[in-house]
Design a protein that fits this description.
The structure holds 2 protein chains of 2 kinds. By secondary structure, chain A is mostly helical. Chain A is about 65% helix and about 0% strand. In chain B, about 30% of the residues are buried. The chains are: A mainly alpha, B mainly alpha. Chain B: Keywords: Membrane, Transmembrane, Transmembrane helix.
Chain lengths: ~650, ~140
């Protein structure tokens, strides 16, 4: 199946037969256009791009909410927002940033980049991929809509009981939170499953596990973590939903339930969630460092080990969010040890990155600049992380602004800076255009300054005793100056993100044409056109090392796979360990059924907020659409 | 196609036997580098989850031996992971083609290091039990 001799890439062939073949492949893999066509594409590039754009829209909206909170806290006893409005905004900001932005953005990047990086033509389950996106879009939109309808949840992004029980949170707010979170997590689970199968089975021949790009390893670890973590929050949300809807007593003390159970279930998901966001970000950082130092990564095995280690240890930390709930010291000591231990794999990664950069001629383009900002911010967040991992210290600063500062340093440092780096890095691949370097530098500078101006004073505010989740404070507390600094910083931060938004929109239309590989990177996504062809690789590549493109440049040859049909969506399935060609799989084409199924599921979930009967309605509707979705048809019938 | 009764089946030849043995051996050897990957998180999770869950019971009955037994069991699991990873590492030096050997060594090394991390975590958690009054707060 693999051509023994180096073959000319179909894109480079100038003869009629080559051009015709390429055109035929592109027609086979094309997505429909027009209004109806919007509901049908299944190609991973289309779905990944949608995930990324939608998640950044939610990021923008959540950012505006953050500005509203900062304005409210600008002066003592401010009445810009009412307490209830503040609680709603705080809850929607936190929930949206975690569930609607951070995870889906990472999923989007993974869905877009990982199949390209492993030389696949598409993902293993393209229609499931599309279904996941529509579920996320509908769930996220419904969640945000609740804010504009004045029905938003107001019990915090962690939604603790008994505050979120029917008695203390009447109305539909908490119901919207529980149903929409469960719904959106279904999308995350579908992404996890398909990413794992794609990475295990659709790699280019020769890409054995020890040649997997670090970013793909990161996506693999993230996907497994999602598989283990998400069910916990789904179960917790479903239980709370039942407590509120049909009067079960899972979290009601008087009925024999336990409010602490909510915290266990929530944080068993909530803490790994931080690392679900962080691990792919580490993969992005490694990829960018390799490209901008133009040398292979130092300590490949150590980096893989560190990511797997982080994934493993992250599931043993959840109790450190509960040190003040009256747990036995024995339990607390276990989790203090584990929480401190996670600094070890994180440190290993930092040393590998330093070693890769050591002595290299680094090119300081915008992606690299964001990576350097990531180092500074994330390490600062990591240091305060070790501090709050310690029981005595945590008991002093628990529920104070110190914790707000800490987790923003970790999450913005660990996820947003790498995401911005990834945006600038892969933008040319996605659009075929470069982003402006000058605007990029200004944006990075403003974001870095604005971020530190906003969140660094919060450490001090916390140490001075300012509690989190308060909508105002009295002037006698003396917190005004630091709050003003933070508010000023938040607007600098917003200006930085605004510059990137302007840069992106401007570059889509009039950015410099990028070419296939503008950064001279070595991973396979840069071995195809920018933006990628419909089929990604008309002839999938065969690889022989960690740095395939640099090897091809040196050898002046590029082995490819032949023998795949042009008239249907065929992709090569390879073995799990050594990626030897095993079989050819026919992937399904564009269809509206994933969208219809997602709408049917939405009817069930959204209806559930108002009546338990919609559970039955939803199941029947989804079942009907699934039958039509899976009805056997071309291309499964052999022609 | 109907399956012939057992007694009517022709006796298996020596070649078929050796093929089967080889296939089993290959299957076992393919799994060996993964043993550390699975045993390490299992051991650590078992120690942490088990220790945490039994804490109220240990304090109520003022006994410690179940915790020591648990620690011994999970450390044995880690040792088994170490052993399997070492075996795979040694085999990695002999395997041809070279490509598979590289992959085998990498998987084995990660398994080995994961076991080391899990072992370290368990020992650190266990060591605390000797100088902390564990039943405080129960």
């Amino acid at each position: 199946m693999t051509d023994a001799t180096p073959a000319l890439d179909l894109r480079e062939r100038t003869d009629d037969e080559g051009r015709e073949r390429l055109a035929r492949i592109e027609r086979t893999w094309a997505s429909p256009t027009g209004f109806l066509g919007w509901f049908m594409p299944v190609n991973h590039t289309a779905i990944g791009r949608r995930f990324i754009v939608t998640s950044f829209v939610f990021f923008l909206l959540s950012g505006v909410l953050a500005l509203a909170m900062r304005l409210q806290l600008l002066v003592p006893l401010n009445d810009l927002l009412t307490p209830d409005q503040y609680n709603q905004i705080m809850t929607v900001h936190g929930t949206a940033m975690m569930f609607l932005f951070a995870i889906p953005a990472m999923e989007g990047v993974a869905i877009y980049v990982a199949p390209l990086m492993i030389g696949a033509r598409d993902m293993a389950f393209p229609r499931l991929n599309a279904f996941g996106y529509y579920v996320y879009l509908i769930g996220g939109s419904a969640f945000f809509l609740s804010l504009f309808l004045g029905m938003a949840p107001a019990a915090g992004w962690f939604n603790y009981v008994p505050l979120s029980n029917k008695e203390f949170a009447p109305g539909y707010g908490v119901d919207i939170w529980t149903t929409m979170i469960t719904f959106i997590e279904v999308s995350a689970l579908t992404a996890a499953v398909e990413l794992i199968v794609t990475i295990f089975k659709l790699r280019a021949p020769g890409m054995s596990l020890n040649r997997l790009p670090i970013f793909v390893w990161a996506v693999l670890v993230m996907s497994f973590m999602m598989l283990f973590a998400m069910p916990s929050v789904i179960v917790a949300s479903a239980m709370l939903m039942m407590d509120r809807l049909v009067d079960t007593q899972f979290f009601v003390t008087e009925g024999g339930g336990s409010p602490l159970l909510w915290q266990h279930l929530f944080w068993f998901f909530g803490h790994p969630e931080v690392y679900i966001i962080l691990v792919p970000a580490l993969g992005i950082v490694t990829t960018i460092i390799v490209t901008f130092t133009q040398r292979p990564v130092f300590g490949y095995t150590a980096l893989v080990l560190a990511m797997v280690g982080i994934g493993m240890v992250s599931f043993g930390l959840w109790v450190h969010h509960m040190y003040t709930t009256g747990l036995p010291l024995m339990g607390r000591s276990f989790f203090m040890a584990a929480s401190s231990m996670i600094a070890i794999p994180s440190g290993v990664q930092v040393y590998c990155w330093i070693a890769t950069m050591w002595g290299a001629k680094i090119r300081f383009a915008t992606p690299m600049l964001f990576v350097l900002c990531f180092f500074a911010v994330f390490i600062a967040g990591g240091l305060t992380g070790v501090m709050v991992a310690s029981v005595p210290f945590d008991r002093q600063v628990h529920d104070s602004y110190f914790v707000v500062a800490h987790f923003h340093y970790v999450l913005v440092g660990g996820a947003v800076f790498p995401l911005m780096a990834g945006l600038y890095y892969w933008f040319p691949k996605m659009t075929g255009r470069m982003m402006s370097e000058r605007l990029g530098w200004w944006s990075a500078l403003l974001i870095f300054l604005g971020f530190n101006l906003t969140f660094f004073p919060m450490h001090q505010l916390g140490l001075e005793g300012m509690p989190r989740r308060v909508y105002t404070y009295v002037p006698e507390m003396g917190w005004q100056f630091l709050n003003q600094l933070a508010t000023a910083g938040s607007f600098v931060l917003a200006a930085g993100f605004g510059l990137t938004l302007i840069n992106a929109i401007r570059s889509v239309f009039c950015g410099e044409v990028a070419g296939d590989n503008p950064w001279n990177a070595t991973t396979l996504e840069w071995a195809t056109a920018s933006p990628p062809l419909n089929s990604n690789f008309p002839q999938p590549p065969v690889i022989d090392s960690h740095t395939p493109i640099w090897d091809w440049q040196q050898d002046d040859e590029r082995p490819v796979v032949g023998g795949l049909r042009d008239d249907r969506r065929e992709t090569l399935v390879t073995t799990l360990l050594d990626a030897r060609p095993a079989m050819v799989q026919v992937l399904p084409g564009p269809t509206p059924w994933p969208f219809v199924s997602a709408v049917a599921a939405s009817v069930g979930f959204i209806g559930l907020i108002f009546s338990p009967w919609f559970y039955v309605v939803g199941i029947l509707a989804v079942f009907a659409t699934f039958v039509l979705w899976f009805w056997p048809r071309h291309p499964y019938r052999e022609e | 196609m109907t399956r012939k009764p057992e007694s009517h089946r022709p006796p298996e030849t020596k070649d078929e036997d050796s093929d089967l043995i080889l296939a089993r051996q290959e299957g076992r050897e393919a799994l060996t580098p993964w043993v550390g990957w699975f045993l390490a998180p299992m051991a650590w999770a078992l120690h942490q989850g088990g220790g945490y869950a039994m804490a109220p019971w240990l304090c109520e009955f003022q006994v410690r031996w179940p915790y020591h037994v648990l620690t011994a069991v999970v450390l044995t699991m880690c040792a088994a992971g170490f052993g399997a990873a070492l075996h795979a590492l040694r085999r990695g030096r002999k395997v041809r083609p070279h490509r598979s050997a590289e992959r085998l060594r990498m998987m084995a090394l990660v398994g080995f290091m994961l076991c080391a991390a899990a072992c370290g975590g368990i020992v650190v958690e266990y060591a605390g039990s000797f100088w902390i009054e564990l039943c405080t707060g129960v």
